Structures are given as C-alpha cells and as structure tokens.
## 1
Amino acid sequence: MDFSKQKILVTGALGMLAADVVPLLKARGAELVLTDIREGEREGTAVVPLDITKQAEVTACVSSERPDIIVNCAAYTRVDDAETDFATAFAVNADSVANLARAARQNQVKVVHVSSDYVFGGDDPEGTRSEEYREDEVHAPCGLYGFSKHYGDELLCGILPEAHLIVRTSWLHGIAGPNFIDTMLRVGKERDMLRVVNDQFGSPTWSGWLAEVICSLLENDAVGVFHASATGTISWFDLAVEIFAQASYQTKVEPQTTEELGRPAPRPAYSSLSKDKLKEMLGDVCIDWKESVAAHLRAKGVV
Ligand SMILES: NC(=O)c1ccc[n+]([C@@H]2O[C@H](COP(=O)([O-])OP(=O)(O)OC[C@H]3O[C@@H](n4cnc5c(N)ncnc54)[C@H](OP(=O)(O)O)[C@@H]3O)[C@@H](O)[C@H]2O)c1
C-alpha cells in the first residue's frame, strides 16, 4: 500500500499514541483528517471535533470525508475509573468501535484499531501462567476496562471481518500522555524511596515504536489481529528499577503486592503478548523492553 494515495481519518488525534502515529502518516505522504472529542491541533493540522459515541456524527463524517482508512486512536483509558464509570467506558471502547465499523462498511473503508493486553488474565488471578498470549486465544478480561476493550475487538471483527486490523499492545508509554515512566520520573524526583508492584508481569511498549509497527502493518496490507509490545516479561517493579538506573536517579525501589496497592480495578497478573505473528509479517522489528525505556528517556531529553 502506498500512503501517498491514501486518505486517512484518525480518531483520538489528541491522545498519546496519536502523537506518534500522526507525524509518521504525514511523513509517508498520507492525506489526513484528524478528529477527537475536543478540537485542537496536531502537527500543524487542525483536529476537528468528532464524538465517536454518536453513530450519526460518525456516519456523516465518514460519508463526507470518504477516507480509505480509519485509524482509531480514541479510547477510554482510565482503567480504575472504568469500574464505576463503565457506561462511558463501554460507549467509547465498545459501542463506538461498532459505530466506526458500520460507517466503514457502508463506505468500503478499512479500520485500524488498538486493543489491550487487559482482554487477558481474568482466568489466571494467581499469575501462574508463563506462556505469552497468542492472537487467537480466548479472551478472559479481569476488569471492566478489559471487558470494554474485548467487546470493541469482537464488534469490529464481526462487522468488518475482511477489513479490520487490530493491533493489541500493553503498558503503552509515550511522551504525549500520562504513563508509568513519566510518573516514575516525576515521583522519583520528589521521594528517596518508592514502593512498586512486583506481582504483575507484562511488557512495556514505546509508543513511537508502536506507531512504526502500525504503519508497517498498513503498508503490508495486514488484516486481522497482531500483538505488538517490547520483548521481555517484567514486573512494574523491574521497570521502575530500570527507569531510575537509566535516568541516573538514586531513588530506591521496594517491591509491593497488588493487594497492598489496593487499586479499584483488577489487573492481569501476567499479560505478556507473543510477537511471533508480527515477526512473521514484518521480520525482526521488535525492540527489547530496556530499549523501550531508553527510547522514551531519549525522546524526553533525560539521557
Ligand atoms: N495506555 C496504555 O497503557 C494502553 C495499553 C494497552 C492498550 N492501549 C490502547 O491504546 C490506544 C491508545 O491509547 P492512548 O493511551 O494513546 O489513549 P489516550 O491518550 O487516552 O487518547 C485517547 C484519545 O481519545 C479521546 N476520546 C475519548 N473519548 C472520545 C470520544 N467519545 N470520541 C472521540 N475521541 C475520544 C481522548 O480524549 P480525552 O483525553 O478528552 O478523553 C483522547 O484524546 C487505546 O485504544 C488504548 O486502549 C493503551
């Protein structure tokens, strides 16, 4: 696929992942229509308001803009809030994906959607698993955010079986939105010691890398579900230790259990994703989790 011949509608264009996706699509020559729930600007291009929970608005926008591809970067990502504000979480993460898919089907548009490792782990509360999740495994979400993402995936596959690309990722960190690495850098400056969860295992994902992967999958006309995260399975504790080591902070890190932290939403104890299918399509594109951290710190000018 040649990007210079594509018109691409991006939803959630003011979000963290979109901050990396939009410049790459632009650099490859795609014609862009940028939208989000709020108006704004991204990369010198106006972001126009489009609430994807509204089917009529979505249909009108897709019918008038007639894009070749929709890249859905919009989401409700506040995992703990989703436990109480589940109506909004489901409206944005599930119903809206169906809204986009229906409008896309009417206009022969491909939909690229981003899923989450939180669709897994509900059947493994003790974290006994040590085998990476493949794309074809049955979902077992453990919280309402995970359920909302699960239904979004299912609806998209059902409505657009031949024209969807789902890129499922985990522990996403980019410089344009709230994320674990920036939280550690901020809190680590204020405190000598931090306690960080040591019983949830997964893989971080540098948003700049994920944006490259999404573009490469599009270039390869990929259809279906692909897992994409850094290689290596670690705990949040391991990640915090590595962030402080690379950033030359003296902050000490002590392990803590999920139960001690006591967050409202349950989280997968193990959610590492297999990249075999991604590597089959794109070759050896994966980066190690320490490089994921390093890329973030370089982009922020910390190292
Ligand atoms: N962050 C992670 O750790 C993580 C992990 C795995 C997968 N993912 C997935 O990766 C994708 C990108 O995540 P992200 O962290 O870049 O998300 P983000 O920074 O929260 O960006 C999402 C954008 O969508 C907008 N939005 C919310 N409701 C909307 C609506 N009704 N209509 C249109 N736009 C709406 C948000 O606006 P407001 O900010 O005003 O709400 C925000 O600008 C999501 O699908 C997420 O589920 C994320």
## 2
Amino acid sequence: MCDHCGCRDLTPIARLMDEHDRLRELTGHIRSHLAVGDDPAARAHFEELLVVLGPHVAEEEGSLFPMLRRSGELADHVTVLEEEHAGLYDDVDDLDDAAAAADGAQRWRDGVQRVLEDLDRHMFKEDFGLFPAALATLDGADWDAMEEWKQAHDAPAEPLGT
Ligand SMILES: [Fe+2]
Ligand SMILES: [Fe+2]
C-alpha cells in the first residue's frame, strides 16, 4: 500500500484505497471459509464483497478514469483497467452458471478463487500505479469534481453483477 506517497491524504483516493482494504479483508474471509469447506460462509462474504465492489467500480469508471483519460499518457493504462473490470463482471456472471451445473459446488469454488486472484492483481495495479499517477496528475478541482460525482451517485449500493 502506497501510504508513503500521500494518496491516503486526498479524500477521493483515500476512500478508494479504504475500499480496497475492505475488499482484501473480505477476500481473506472468503479464502479462509473455502479452506475449511464452509461454502455458505464463503458465499455470504462473497455477496458482501460484491456490495462493496459494485459502487467502487462505478466510481472509478464514472469519475476517476475519465479524468485520467484526459492525460494522454495514462489513457492506455486506464483502458487496461477498464477491461479488467469487464473481465471481473463476466467472471462473476459465470459463477451463477457454474452454481447451476451438476458439479456446481466445486466449479463455484474454483471460479471464486479466480475472481479473487484477478481482483488482487487489479487492486495492486491501482494502488501502486494508477492512484499515485492520479495524485501526480489531478488537482483540487478534480478532487472536488470526484466528490460531487460521488454525492450525486450515492444511491443504495448495487452489487457487482446485478
Ligand atoms: Fe478498479
Ligand atoms: Fe479499485
């Protein structure tokens, strides 16, 4: 976590990083439950993870990414991260199909592990790449615009995949 660079001091980025911390906390719970075969508890925590992840991705794509795309040198990186979001959505959708299959329980567990691994890698890129770049690129007016976007979109959380 890049606490040293000052990301934690700027409200919108601090909020996104706090959400990453919560997502990592939940992935830890899910993995622990899967390791001991407690699928119902893993499912409950996975549902909770989706409730955090949905609005988090919405803020990144609706507010932060468009601002960073204005800076030509970050545009390609933002595109990669958006594609990773789409991949996560697809993989979460596939979990519903997996659960309905004859060997659904194992396919669901394997699918969840893949989603968590992809999410770990994605958050690492944002924590150590995108967020420090945002700090270097954006200014006070941009942070204000992010806050306004957040307040305008602070509807009840939509879980990812719904
Ligand atoms: Fe993201
Ligand atoms: Fe993120």
